[in-house]
C-alpha cells in the first residue's frame, strides 16, 4: 500500500470515530450559518407565524412574486441578476414553469413586531396538482394570483375551490397591472362572478416591478390566521415533502403541529413504525440554515439518517419515540391517470435505472411504480403519472439529473372490465379486472361489460373560438355538462370527456383551435361504461402482441388504418412478402403489403425459347412459396421502439 493511500485511510478512520467531526463536515458542506439570525427564526411566537402558498394558473407570475417577497424580506440580495430563484431544477429553468413546490422561511417587521412567513411556491399546471395538494396540507391560507391581462383561467378555478374545500383563508391578488392590455376592472368582475370575491378586496400589483408587493405581505399577516399549534404538547409533525441527498440520505420537510424537536431526539414514523435519531435540523431561507430546534408552527428540514427512500412517505406523521399520538389528517396523494412503460436501453443498465427512478419518486409521490416486462424491450416498469406533461418532465429529469437514457412507451390509461366467466372469476378471485396492457386483454366472450376512466374538464375560451372548441370536444367523444358566460368576451364550458382522448394531443389541439387563448383543467370522474376493443396486429397471419392496442369501437377503423401505414414504413423489406393486418377478433379492418426482394432470375437469358423463361420463373415462385411457409418475419428492435413510443 502506498504512503498516500495509508494516510488517507488513517484520516478517514479518525473522522469516522468522531460523530461531532462528521456533523461539522456536513454542515460546512451544506449549510450557510448565521447563529444570531437563526435564533430570531426560533424565537417567533406562534401568533406571529403565517404559513401560506401562492396558487395560480400557469404563467401568471407566481415565481416572480416569490422573488419579490424574498427580496423585500432580505432573504436574497435585490438586483442580484437572478430570477425564479425557487425554480432550482434544470427542467424548470429550461421550460419556464414550476414543477416542484419550493419552501422559504422569511422574517418581516410589521408594526414593530417580527413575523415568520413560511412561503410555498406551487406549480400552476394541472399535471402537478399533487404538489398543490400536499402544499396546502401545511398551510393556513393562500395568495390567489390572477393575471390582469389574461383573466381567470381554468386552473385558477380549480385552485380556488381546492383552497375553499380546505377552509383556507384567501388573499386575492391581480398581477401584471402594468401591462398595456391589462384590464384589472374586468378581471375583478370575473372574480366577483365566479368566486363571489368583493372587487374592493382584490390587491393590484406588478410582481415584475415590485409595485404593491409589500402590501401583499401585510395583507397576508392581516387576513391569514396563525397555525393552530400547541408548543406544550408532545412533538407531532406532518411530512409533506422529501428528497434524496447522496451524503445524508432522505431529507424530510415537515410542518410541526405540536411540541418541539431537537437534535439527538428519537422520532418514530406512524406508518412504518421505524425509529430514527435526528442528526440535523434546518430551515430554508431559501438555502439551508441550521437551527437547534424546531417548534410548533414552523416548517423545517429534518435529517435523520433515513437511508431508504421508500421510508419517507408523504403525508406520514412523525412523533417522539414511545409517545403514542393520533396521526395528522390532511393529505391524500392523487391517483395516477396516465401510464407509460419505461425500459433501459440496455438490460445491463437495469439496476442503475431502478435506483434513479426510486430517487426521483421520493421527490414526486404522485408517481406509481409497477414492474413490467416486454418480449420486445425486456425487463422494465410501468409508471403512473397525473398527465402527459408530468410524464415528460419526469423522463427529462431522469436524463438530466441521473444521466439515464430509458426507452419510454406511448402513454395509455387503465381500463376496468367486469367478467362473467365463472372459471375465470374463481381463478382471479374477483369479477373485476383492471388492465392497461393490451396483452392481458381477455377473450370478449368472458367479459360482461367494459369501463373506461373519464374526467370532468373545465375549458375557458374567448367567445370567437367557441364553435371550434365545441367541435374539438365532440370529436373527442365529449358530452357538454354546462356553458356559462363569464363576461361579454369569455365562456366557461364543462365537458365530460374520456381520459384516453385527452392524454395525448387534446391540449395542443385546444391551443391551436383557440390561437393559444383557451385554458383547460380536469378532475377525475371515475369509470363509466364504454365500448372498447382490442386491436391486434398480424404479420403474415401471426399475431404480434407487443403491437396490439386498446381502442374505442367508434375509432378503431381509422386507428387501424393509420397504424398499418406506419408499420409499412418502419418494417424493412425481406426475402418474402409481408402482409400487415389490423384485426378485431377475426375481422380484418386494414391491410398493407410489403413486397419482397426479387432477384431477376431471367437476366442471364439472352435468347432461346420462351419456355426457358417460364421454367425459371416457376422455380422461383415455388421457392418463394416454400420460404413463406417456413420463414419468420424479422421485426427490428428499433421498429418496436418507434411504434410503442407513439
Account of the 3D structure:
- This protein has 646 residues and is α+β, with helices and mostly antiparallel strands.
- The protein has 18 helices and 30 strands.
- The strands form 6 sheets. The protein has an 8-stranded antiparallel β-sheet, with helices on one face. A 6-stranded mixed β-sheet has the order 2-3-1-4-5-6, sandwiched between helices. Strands 21, 22, 23, 24, 25 and 26 form a 6-stranded antiparallel β-sheet that branches.
- It is elongated and about 115 Å long.
- The two termini are 56 Å apart.
- The model is unreliable at 1-33 (pLDDT under 50).
Instruction: Output mean pLDDT.
Output: 80
Helicity level = 25-40%
Give the strand order of the largest sheet, numbering strands 1, 2, ... along the chain.
11-10-16-7-8-15-12-13
Quote the distance from N terminus to C terminus: 56 Å
The dominant shape is elongated
Integer-rounded radius of gyration? 30 Å
Give the class from helix and strand content and strand pairing: alpha+beta
Oligomer designation: single chain
Strand content: 25-35%
Number of strand elements:
30
Biggest beta sheet summary: 8 strands, antiparallel
Low-confidence parts, pLDDT < 50 over ≥5 residues?
A: 1-33
The total of helices stands at: 18
How does the SSE layout of this entry go?
Elements (H helix, E strand, L loop, with lengths): L2 H15 L1 H12 L4 H8 L6 E8 L5 H11 L17 H6 L6 E9 L2 E9 L7 H8 L4 E7 L6 H12 L3 E7 L8 H12 L7 E2 L8 H11 L12 E10 L3 E10 L1 E3 L3 E4 L5 E3 L2 E5 L3 E3 L2 E3 L3 E8 L10 E4 L17 E7 L5 H14 L4 E7 L3 E8 L2 H15 L3 E3 L6 E5 L2 H7 L3 E4 L11 E16 L3 H10 L3 E7 L4 E9 H4 L3 H8 L5 E12 L1 E8 L2 E11 L3 H15 L7 E7 L2 E8 L15 H21 L6 H9 L1
Parallel strand pairs: 1-3, 1-4, 4-5, 5-6
Antiparallel strand pairs: 2-3, 7-8, 7-16, 8-15, 9-14, 10-11, 10-16, 12-13, 12-15, 17-19, 17-20, 18-19, 21-22, 21-23, 23-25, 23-26, 24-25, 27-28, 27-29, 29-30
